[in-house]
Amino acid sequence: MRRFGRASNVNIGATGRATGDGAAGACSGQVGQIGSSVQQHRLPDVAAATLLSLASRCHARGWAQATSGNFSVRLDARRFVITKSGLDKGALRAEDLLVVDLDGNPLTDGRPSAETPLHAQVYRRRPGITAVAHTHSVAATVLSRALLAEGYVVLSGFEMLKALVGIDTHETAIRLPIFPNEQDVQRLATQVDAELGGDDCVYGYLLAGHGLYTWGTSAGEAARHVEAIEFLLECVLHGRR
Amino acid sequence: MRRFGRASNVNIGATGRATGDGAAGACSGQVGQIGSSVQQHRLPDVAAATLLSLASRCHARGWAQATSGNFSVRLDARRFVITKSGLDKGALRAEDLLVVDLDGNPLTDGRPSAETPLHAQVYRRRPGITAVAHTHSVAATVLSRALLAEGYVVLSGFEMLKALVGIDTHETAIRLPIFPNEQDVQRLATQVDAELGGDDCVYGYLLAGHGLYTWGTSAGEAARHVEAIEFLLECVLHGRR
Amino acid sequence: MRRFGRASNVNIGATGRATGDGAAGACSGQVGQIGSSVQQHRLPDVAAATLLSLASRCHARGWAQATSGNFSVRLDARRFVITKSGLDKGALRAEDLLVVDLDGNPLTDGRPSAETPLHAQVYRRRPGITAVAHTHSVAATVLSRALLAEGYVVLSGFEMLKALVGIDTHETAIRLPIFPNEQDVQRLATQVDAELGGDDCVYGYLLAGHGLYTWGTSAGEAARHVEAIEFLLECVLHGRR
Amino acid sequence: MRRFGRASNVNIGATGRATGDGAAGACSGQVGQIGSSVQQHRLPDVAAATLLSLASRCHARGWAQATSGNFSVRLDARRFVITKSGLDKGALRAEDLLVVDLDGNPLTDGRPSAETPLHAQVYRRRPGITAVAHTHSVAATVLSRALLAEGYVVLSGFEMLKALVGIDTHETAIRLPIFPNEQDVQRLATQVDAELGGDDCVYGYLLAGHGLYTWGTSAGEAARHVEAIEFLLECVLHGRR
User: Fold this and answer.
1) Within a domain: C70
2) Which residues of B touch C146 (CB under 8 A)?
3) What are the Class II aldolase/adducin N-terminal domain coordinates in residue numbering (chains A, B, C, D) (predicted)?
4) Which of C61, C160, C234, C237 to mutate to test the interface with D (most CBs of D within 10 A)?
């Protein structure tokens, strides 16, 4: 499946179509020379560009303020690229990303996002997923605290639900599970894994007082899911007043 | 009637004046050679630019997130151009538009917006209309659900009503009908047609939990109508608290 | 008094300082040749640039949507320049402005803003004022309707009050009078004149369901007053919930 | 400690990393020639660029409207640079900054911000701090008035708290003290000093009906603190409805 094209300027819109030169396959890209462990994990330009675009898009919406939020894209069955810890998501460069394995262990230099285990959980459980986005919005933060006792936010009857892959009717409802926030991210990932697994009916989840995790089979789909869910959370928030 | 000029960069402001080179008539444009059915429906550059500008303008306001929303402009008495289905309205290009007839049948390659029948209904019933805009805003989504039982949103006494063509006083009220959202868009278009026809006193309508449909005798007028109605919906939403 | 400098790119920030080449006096500028009534009222480049900047600044804040809002700057004791009627305030050009006298009569070609009498009232009554801004914001629209019966909005105890010329303490309160909106703008101007005159303690007023009028001794001061008052109206609106 | 690099274009993101040429140490910079008191206090280019970037960043967020807000960076143990009084923080230039000592006395030409004593208090009491930001947001203004009787805003349990230096868990709470606004800024600074001193557990404070003061060991850290606290204040404001 071609998800993004080779590009000098890769722009991933919410449809996932990379608007670049778009000729070569992305995932293999420039993997490096045989025999060099560092170069084996060299970050392909396209993957870097894709991830930077996703992070930048979310930051521009106000969903990754004060170095919050984290974003990743899959490289292959065993590795993904994630934003480093504690950086301004509106000013990232390729050197601010690093490659990790599906246990979240860094394979290139640097300190990965503290929430890497939550990304790894998605990639392990959902083989078709190639991008994960974690955003911090006011709506997600407020609603996840207000509705923690219920355990989920219900999004029901909205046309915008059809922006979520596989949903072709507004006459439906989805639940966004809410997990209590947890300092031990590994334990949190284990809990998410135990409760959600790779359930295709789950499009994302909330961490109380924290934010939203969602994903997609491409960076564009992940961006579309973030936009749709954050929009719906705002609708729910305003509808409660 | 000259509604937009020939331009390399056509910018349609809310007044409908195309700020381009502005020399040639727009509607005929470069229609193609006799005898070629594909080229007969080739999309004139000006129409494409006009429509892209309208979509981009609405997307920039946050009213077409996550590939939602759809926009169209009339080509002639029998055809209009509409945005294709499922694309990021902030990153459209000419190839993302297609020509359809007034029954909504595509005349060029591609899959038109799923809501094409609603656009076609407007063009059939309202011969003077040359642009249709469908937006998804938080205010429209929330209010259309809250007031569905009433069947309409009343906009009364606002100065901004004078931005709607034909209204020259704030001492008036208009109703935005609210229709229950419907999966069968053809059936929905039939219902809208039966209840609204081409009533000149109706400036737009809402689909519950979905969004706003409005239109104009030019793309600029449609843009102005969208801006005015979305502004007023926000005023109503804030005024209810 | 030098209020703005000659510039190719005049940028009027909220302090009123024109950040351009800044050499020549603005008000006289390039007035035209003796004996030509049209050229007598030719719009000086600097005045045009100043006014375009003020309108653009307010439009960018969302306070002049759907061609609403109007803006003016004084040329001399007898004339001012105002934005023409019904145009997108985010896309104005010099040809979209026209010169009027203090009775609001156009002195150059075009149709002035319908609300010209309200601008003229300010210039007649307040000789030191050189710019007037009329904005349409959600906060101003909602509050002016909610508090019409009281007849004014009280802004009390805010630090931001010190952005209003002549106010050097937060330990004060000002009132923004609210007038019922009126179709006969001339009559409205007469009413405003009768009730407010040129009272220096009045920094602006609201038209119910319509918007804000405010002014300044320079375009920068007017911009600062608009920003300060619109900010405070938002604080009042949010503080009521 | 290297906090910012030498740069022609210094961009201070929220992480504090200056993305410029980044070679020379910032604090000493180009201090001037021995024997010239004016040149002794010449403003180093990097410090100017850093401060302009911080002010611009906050202004772009809407937190310094109508010339409100003020920002400073430390030069050395005895001096800091602060924005001049009454200027548009979105259009500042190097000449709009001036050097002051830790008593707030200007060492270069110009009128410093009226709130200079509050900045000086931070630099005197907190030797590690190199940047101070004072913002005016709707959330800070509204909440500081609503909760003045309590004397503080509690921010508890939010993940965003971890954006504040030294906080590595969401399972905590901080208090933002609220002081009544005061015309005599020197007296206010004395009060703040008496009540807060250089308490490391205090990340900022509010002035009622006025705004937020916060700081950082770098301009980037200060920017991150402003973003985090303003975000949390919005969450508290929306959570109260």
Assistant:
1) yes
2) 239
3) 49-237
4) C160
The helix/strand/coil state of D115 is coil
Q: Which runs of E-coded beta strand occur in C63-219? A: 70-74, 79-83, 97-101, 131-135, 152-156, 173-179, 204-207, 211-216
Residue B59 to residue B64: CA distance in whole angstroms:
5
Looking at the complex, report in whole angstroms how far the Cα of residue B177 sits from the nearest Cα belonging to chain A. Answer: 17
Q: For residue B228, give the chain C residue with the closest CA.
A: C66
Average pLDDT, chain A: 86
Between chains, do B158 and C91 touch, taking CB under 8 Å as contact?
no
User: Residue B27 phi/psi, 5° resolution?
Assistant: -65, -40
* Nearest Cα residue in chain C from B225: C66
- Give the whole-angstrom CA distance, residue D77 versus residue A65: 31
D22 touches chain C (CB under 8 A): no
Q: Which amino acid is at C214?
A: T
Q: Which amino acid is at C126?
A: R
Q: According to the model, what pLDDT value does residue C113 have?
A: 86
Q: Would strands B204-207 and B173-179 be described as parallel, antiparallel, or unpaired?
A: parallel
In a domain, A21, yes or no: no
Torsion of the alpha carbons at A159, A160, A163 and A164, rounded to the nearest 10: -100
B207 domain residue, yes or no: yes
pLDDT, mean over chain D? 86
Counting as contact any 3 or more CB pairs under 8 A, the partners of A are B, D
Domain of A111 in residue numbering reads as: 6-10+28-239
Using the Cβ of A90 and the Cβ atoms of chain D, whether some distance falls under 8 Å is answered with: yes
Q: Quote ipTM for the complex.
A: 0.86
In a domain? residue C102: yes
Nearest C-alpha in A relative to B209: A158
* Binding-site residue positions of C for Zn(2+): 134, 136
**DSSP secondary-structure letter at B84?**
B
Give the residue among A143, A173, A72 at the shortest CA–CA distance from A113. Answer: A72
pTM of the complete model beyond 0.90: no
Residue A71: helix, strand or coil by DSSP? strand
- Compare all CA atoms of chain B with the CA of C115 and give the residue at the minimum distance: B159
Q: What would the mean pLDDT of B6-35 be, rounded to a whole number?
A: 36
Interface check B239 vs A, CB under 8 A: no
Predicted local confidence at residue A118, as pLDDT:
98
The residue-averaged pLDDT of B76-80 equals 97
**How many helices (H) and strands (E) in chain B?**
6, 8
Domain CATH code at residue D98: 3.40.225.10
Give contacts of D 37-66 with A, CB under 8 A: none
Per-residue pLDDT tens digits of chain C, which is 241 residues long: 222 222 233 445 555 443 333 333 332 333 333 334 445 678 888 999 999 999 999 999 999 999 999 999 999 999 999 999 899 999 999 999 999 999 999 999 888 888 999 999 999 999 999 999 999 999 999 999 999 999 999 999 999 999 999 999 999 999 999 999 999 999 999 999 999 999 999 999 999 999 999 999 999 999 999 999 999 999 999 999 7
pLDDT tens figures, B144-200 = 999 999 999 999 999 999 999 999 999 999 999 999 999 999 999 999 999 999 999
Give the integer Cα–Cα distance in Å for A113 and A119: 10
A11 CB within 8 Å of a chain B CB: yes
User: What gap in Å lies between CA C148 and CA A94, rounded to an integer?
Assistant: 56
Is the CB of residue C166 less than 8 Å away from at least one CB of chain D? no
Question: What 3-state DSSP class applies to A67?
Answer: helix
Taking the C-alpha atoms of residue A195 and residue B27, their distance in angstroms, rounded to an integer, is 58
Helices (H), chain B: 37-40, 45-60, 116-125, 138-146, 185-196, 219-239
Q: Is A234 an 8 Å CB contact of chain B?
A: yes
**Is A136 an 8 Å CB contact of chain D?**
yes
> Per the structure, how many domains does chain D have?
1
How many C-beta neighbours within 10 Å does residue B76 have? 11
